[in-house]
């Protein structure tokens, strides 16, 4: 009788064992959630809205601009839990506001509990998808969510706590306030100010004027030739300024307890272990002024 | 001839006596009297001179007319408005009925919150050390680090609650891990001083 080699007889068993182990590992890393959701859709026509106010909690907010004169809002509220009835019950505790007041429009999601009602145990989320004319100003507050915004030209005021924020192609007056989280801005032109605490900030293709006040975290700025003025005040922050041609600006740099890495050409007024003051003057109209405490500064 | 005529007269008288008698209704005389007076009144009215009242008289009359009907109309209108207002307010607060939809999602258990971390346990050890050793712990730079750690601790607590048990957002977990790294860096600086 011909006997088959042992690896042939054992191979299917071995393959099955491996598959079982992989699948069981995958299964243990995942669980099925029941999602209860409801969707609210609004179209806000004439008379034209001038300011859109959004107060989101755990919101994923996406704002794009379009050519139409109206505003379109899709708001999806959802609750996630392993038990379907719990998810549905918690969703009923989620409220929203969508109302006009003259030339302002207000959007908001929040939790409202009746007397004796318990807090939601589900994971609650709000997702806003908004299309607006580029001339509408936006006043947005959000916590524990994401923000994506593109194409605004008038006025933007953003307050984001624990948010991952991405903004692009924004003009006009831009006021950004963050605590924790990340903010990534591309192609910002106008009068921009940033105030951040424990936030990682990256601003690319910046023109116009920019004022940065940062505590803790990282700040990376990549200006264009169109930068007219930059003022940075930072504390316990790693600041990096990367310009294609750094000589296009005049610089004044002051650091206390800060390590500095500057290009050749800067002149030192003071250069001690704890205090460093340097400048570069090249008869440019645009000026850069940086004050740092307890951090790192790199200009390149 | 005369006797025949008298005979007939007697017969006629007897026949008349046998006729039934009936008294007129009591109201008849009153009615006749009223008719007679009405006739006289009409004649007197015809003789009365005719005068047109001035506009002041009409206004005076209109002002003294009973207003019960108009008051009721206003009450009805007010009631309708109140009911309509309440209905509108109820509709507004309730909002349009948006149907609840159900779906399923797979949640990665690695995106859920871990609870208290080793960093916090290490910080508690430093704190207990500071209860007996105050030389280092009273220094300004140590206190500054301690304040920073506690700020980060509060932030990680907030994130811990936001992540909860059914999180699907990796961004929140990334932030949580980033804060943990910062806490570790601060804690290492504190530990070096001790």
**What's the tally of helices of chain B?**
7
Q: Level of helix content of chain A?
A: 10-25%
Look at the structure and give the mean pLDDT of chain A: 90
Q: Kindly report how far apart the N and C termini of chain A lie.
A: 79 Å
Low-confidence stretches of chain B are none
Proportion of beta-strand residues of chain B? under 5%
Find the count of extended strands of chain B (DSSP E, 2+ residues).
1
Principal-axis shape of chain A: elongated
| Fraction of residues in H or I helices of chain B | over 70%
Distance between the termini of chain B: 175 Å
- What fraction of residues of chain A sit in β-strands? over 45%
Q: Give the beta-strand count of chain A.
A: 21
Mean pLDDT of chain B: 79
Along the chain, the helix and strand elements of chain A come as HEEEEHEEEEEEEEEEEEEEEEE
Describe the largest sheet of chain B. none
Radius of gyration of chain B: 56 Å
Say what oligomer this is.
heterodimer
What string gives the helices and strands of chain B in order?
A: HHHHEHHH
């Amino acid at each position: 009788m011909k006997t088959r080699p042992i690896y042939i007889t054992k191979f299917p068993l071995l393959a099955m064992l491996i598959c079982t182990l992989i699948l069981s590992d995958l299964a243990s890393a995942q669980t099925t959630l029941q999602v209860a959701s409801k969707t609210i859709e609004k179209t806000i026509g004439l008379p034209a809205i001038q300011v859109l106010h959004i107060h989101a909690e755990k919101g994923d907010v996406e704002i794009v601009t379009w050519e139409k004169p109206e505003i379109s809002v899709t708001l999806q509220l959802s609750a996630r839990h392993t038990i379907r009835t719990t998810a549905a019950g918690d969703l009923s505790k989620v409220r929203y506001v969508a109302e006009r007041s003259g030339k302002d429009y207000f959007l908001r999601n929040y939790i409202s509990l009746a007397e004796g009602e318990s807090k939601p145990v589900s994971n609650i989320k709000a997702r806003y998808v908004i299309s607006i004319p580029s001339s509408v100003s936006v006043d947005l507050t959000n916590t524990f969510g994401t923000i994506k915004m593109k194409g605004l030209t008038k006025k933007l005021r953003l307050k984001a706590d624990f948010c991952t924020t991405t903004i692009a192609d924004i003009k006009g007056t831009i006021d950004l306030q963050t605590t924790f989280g990340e903010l990534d801005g591309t192609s910002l032109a106008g009068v921009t100010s940033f105030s951040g605490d424990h936030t990682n900030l990256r601003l690319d293709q910046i023109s116009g004027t920019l004022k940065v006040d940062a505590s803790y975290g990282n700040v990376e700025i990549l200006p264009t030739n169109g930068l007219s003025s930059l003022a940075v005040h930072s504390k316990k922050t790693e600041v990096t300024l990367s310009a294609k041609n750094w000589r296009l600006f005049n610089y004044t740099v002051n650091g206390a307890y800060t390590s500095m890495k500057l290009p050749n050409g800067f002149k030192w007024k003071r250069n001690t272990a704890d205090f460093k003051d340097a400048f570069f003057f090249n008869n440019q109209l645009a000026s850069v002024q940086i004050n740092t405490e307890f951090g790192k500064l790199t200009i390149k | 001839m005369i006797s025949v005529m008298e005979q007939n007269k007697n017969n006629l008288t007897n026949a008349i006596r046998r006729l039934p008698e009936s008294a007129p209704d009591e109201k008849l005389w009153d009615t006749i009297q009223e008719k007679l007076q009405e006739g006289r009144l009409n004649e007197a009215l015809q003789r009365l001179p005719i005068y047109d009242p001035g506009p002041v008289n009409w206004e005076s009359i209109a002002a003294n007319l009973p207003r019960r009907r108009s008051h009721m109309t206003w009450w009805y209108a007010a009631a309708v408005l109140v009911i309509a207002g309440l209905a509108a307010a109820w509709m507004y607060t309730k909002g349009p009925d948006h149907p609840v939809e159900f779906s399923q999602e797979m949640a990665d258990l690695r995106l859920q919150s871990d609870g208290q971390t080793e960093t916090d346990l290490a910080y508690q050890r430093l704190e207990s050390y500071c209860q007996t050793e105050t030389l280092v712990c009273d220094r300004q730079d140590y206190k500054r680090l301690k304040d920073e750690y506690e700020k980060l601790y509060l932030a990680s607590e907030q994130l811990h609650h936001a992540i909860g048990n059914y999180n699907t957002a990796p961004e929140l977990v990334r932030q949580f891990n980033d804060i943990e790294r910062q806490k570790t860096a601060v804690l290492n600086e504190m530990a070096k001083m001790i």
